[in-house]
From TrEMBL:
One cellular component term from this protein's GO annotations in UniProt: membrane
Record key words, sorted: Glycosyltransferase, Membrane, Signal-anchor, Transferase, Transmembrane, Transmembrane helix
Name this protein carries in UniProt: Glucoside xylosyltransferase 2
Gene3D superfamilies assigned to the protein according to its UniProt record, in alphabetical order: Spore Coat Polysaccharide Biosynthesis Protein SpsA, Chain A (3.90.550.10)
Membrane-crossing segments per the record: 12-39
Subcellular location: Membrane
Superkingdom to which the source organism belongs: Eukaryota
Main localisation: membrane
Amino acid sequence: MSKPALGRLEVYIICLCLLTVWTFLFPQLFSSTVTVFYYHVSSSLIVKSPNQAETPRQSPIEIVLPGCADRLPDAMNLVKSIFLASEPKNHVTVYLFTELVNWNRTEREFRKLTSSLAFIEKYLTLRLLDPALKSLDHQKLPKNRTGTEACGPDLTAFLPVILPNSQGAIVLEPNALMLGSVQELWSQFSKMNSKQVIGVALQRELASFGWYNSWSRRAFAPPFEIHPGVILMNLTRLRNEGFTEALLKIQSGATNQTQLLPSTALNQYFYLNPDKLFLLPCKWNLREDHCGEESKKCKSAEEDGAGIIQLPHNSSGLPDKRTVTQKDFYSVSDYIENFDPTDPKTMIRLMDPLMASLNNKTLPTSNLCRASLLRGLERQRTQKN
């Protein structure tokens, strides 16, 4: 004689008892003060440089950048600048977040670069990642968070869990361009002490020009606030520190939209944890802000050449209304965009007129970053010859 099936009431009671026991054994999973995040990348595509028979022995230099929607052309120009700035001995892996619809076009452009004569000795890997990150725990995300922020401002917060097997990464905004050596920037990790988890440049070089310390009442990273355009992240230490949870906790307590910005959250995080911050030389994040007045100049860029430049925002579509500084920055961008890796003479054909233009004494000299741009380009040309 078969046993009678359990009724709905019995099943409900059993489930309730199991839940009660589970809550008692693991109370931290149900605490309102502890948030557990589980993320995985829903889709990815790996495209490798075809010109290397063997993988270099050293661990890859890992670079992360968002390139969604209309930012993809900027991101691909940045990828080309990384090609130009990398050395044959380097193994560089670029993680590019962009929508699935862009993958075929991006793969074709990347393969065109890697198969060209100019980059035949370079070893680069492109990993295309779907920005629609899947969260298994949506209900525990802070307000205004959906778990699909990989192309938005929260990429920095989520990266330690998005890339669980990576030890470190350089995060760049898509409007950045690499002029200096990729290896030289990566070597900044070795200069961090045992407590430091992130390397980033200051927002300003002098306290008198800082937004946070001059106008805002919000907390900021000492001494003058930081700019998140270029970020070196020690992902192993950040995971151990619970960085994702800490940063999102700061954002969850925001009372307005401005406090949700990644720069604001990072500044508050390092206000609370100043010993975890490593300051990058400003030459690795040269911006228009450095070029207007003598007192704002970036000395490391002036001495060594610009390592990374940030293109000015909101001016790419208005070339006639650009300032002298913006025109100079975009002339470097145009050089990289027009660089033809299939043409052996492309560097001479493009760089010589560019450097002559930047060195033209008859043009307005209000851009104090010209010397930095010229030294950065000269170093790049010297490395290629």
